[in-house]
Amino acid sequence: RNMIYRERVDSTNILARQTGETGFVDGTVILAEEQTAGKGRLGRVWHSPMGTGINMSLLLRPAIPVSDAAKITLLTGAAVARGLEEITGLKIGIKWPNDLQIQGKKVSGILTEIKADMDQIHYLIVGIGINVNEQDFPEELRETATSLHMEVGRQVSRIETAAVVLNHWEEIYQRFLTQGFTVVREEWKQYAVTLGKEVHVRTINETIHGQALDIDEDGLLLVQDEDHQIHRIMAGDVTLRT
Ligand code: BTN
């Protein structure tokens, strides 16, 4: 096992990539107190000021096809959700694919990055950001973001939270590697807040309006549009239709 800790880093995912380019131990955990260029999905910035959140990347070398990488994002979401429920006693929801929410506000996000050649994964990075002890957010996030502290009304131990999340992660990851995605999918669905709802899904090419039906055996989102056509969505932004 290997662990890398930094006070300050541009992004733990970037440090993970640099580490991945050299020899590395499968399962290396990278943690930083502060990120100066924390990365979110779809080119967004992940707010990660000094000492308040968990900024963590897992560096892995799984022997799975590249097309299975999305499943790792989902299993990580389930592991973080379970860990955060255990720590806070609050209900955690997951908005497909990877937004963890408490009462509709985002408390954690996951950014998976992959380096592969043909169908061989060189390394896979699972970046996990958790808002733990923030007591306020910048104006532009105030409506949509929350932290564990803001929800439970007291300081929450980051080290304990990270440990609980990692233990669940390890358990679910091993289960995925040995038994496949079926069990993980059931676990993930217990936290799903988008399924069965009317949604807008914005993908790179189009916006689909319809009902989110399920996730399939590959972790893709199934949405049925107004013409009863079913779309399998690999990546996109889901908003609930109001
Ligand atoms: C998202 O919801 O858009 C994903 C956010 C992922 C943030 C984490 S923090 C640790 C790791 N390093 C990064 O730069 N991003 C991820």
From TrEMBL:
Protein name: Bifunctional ligase/repressor BirA
Swiss-Prot/TrEMBL catalytic activity: biotin + L-lysyl-[protein] + ATP = N(6)-biotinyl-L-lysyl-[protein] + AMP + diphosphate + H(+)
An annotated Gene Ontology molecular function: biotin--[biotin carboxyl-carrier protein] ligase activity
Name of the coding gene: birA
Function comment: Acts both as a biotin--[acetyl-CoA-carboxylase] ligase and a repressor.
Main enzyme class: ligase
Highest taxon, organism lineage: Bacteria
Enzyme Commission code(s) on record: 6.3.4.15
Chain residues that bind biotin: S11, T12, N13, Q35, K106
Keywords for the protein's UniProt record, in alphabetical order: ATP-binding, Biotin, DNA-binding, Ligase, Nucleotide-binding, Repressor, Transcription, Transcription regulation
Span of the entire protein shown here: 79 to 320 of 320
UniProt record similarity statement: Belongs to the biotin--protein ligase family.
Residue span(s) of domain BPL/LPL catalytic: 1-177
